[in-house]
Amino acid sequence: MPWVKGQCKGKDVWLEVAASGELVVDGGRVPVRYSDEAGARVYRAGLSNITRGEGPARELEAGVSADAAPASSRKSAARGSGFGKAGTRTKAQAKAAAQAADALLASLPVHAVVCFTDGACKGNPGPAGAGAVVRLPDGRVLERAVALGQATNNVGELTAIGVAMDLLDEAEVPLDAEVHVLTDSQYSNGVLVLGWKARANRELITDVKARLARRQPTVHWIAGHVGIPDNERADALANRGVDGSRAGRTGVV
């Protein structure tokens, strides 16, 4: 199968081409891979996010579609399987996590609203905070840090998703706008998307689900601390919330 070198949001990638040399485009997306090795994961990036290089096409060994895993494997991946934990990842795990995050971002339409959310806690339970960064298609960036007082990290993560919805409401983003929420919380993704049974925080989960139902956003799990600037900013905002909680404050800080 022929591929050509190119870039996807500034990252070096291989782009699939047809025998004619034209990019393979399906539904406005192009198959991309970050490695020329056999078995490399093949993602689908939005056409507007890629740039074709000048070099000739090359035949590469078959890759594996990132969408081809069975449901059980996707569920395992959502739990962070294969990526390790921030701070203890191997180089290979960090590379795989970063590539998956880059591919996810590249796959999002340019007209979509993208929300990055994060929670933080010192002590679990302890002083907690929530942070959200929202990027609107018109170039505006909205952000907020919230102090939660004494709470758990999971409460911070869930609350951050609600904070993102608040920012959309305040900016009067239409309810039918395409919205994508990126969380690095396996727990939040599990109880909100994957159907995990909640043993705690049931009232908060119900509230966040109701707020999400108004807009029907797509919630994605993304590995934390893999060099995504807006993800890191959401983390910084969440920690600002922690500092506010330590100072005895609650609410927006």
Question: What would your notes on this structure say?
Answer:
This protein has 253 residues and is an alpha+beta fold. It has 2 domains: 2-82, no CATH class; 113-252, Ribonuclease H-like superfamily/Ribonuclease H (Nucleotidyltransferase, domain 5, 2-Layer Sandwich), CATH 3.30.420. The protein is 33% helix and 28% strand. The chain is built from 6 helices and 13 strands. It has helices at residues 71-78, 91-107, 153-170, 186-194, 202-215, 229-246; strands at residues 2-8, 11-16, 29-33, 41-46, 50-52, 58-59, 64-65, 113-121, 126-135, 141-151, 179-183, 218-221, 251-252. Strands 1, 2, 3, 4, 5, 6 and 7 form a 7-stranded mixed β-sheet that branches. The chain has a 6-stranded mixed β-sheet with strand order 12-11-8-9-10-13. β3 and β4 form a beta hairpin. The radius of gyration is 19 Å and the shape is elongated. The relative contact order is 0.14. Residues 68-81 have low confidence and may be disordered.
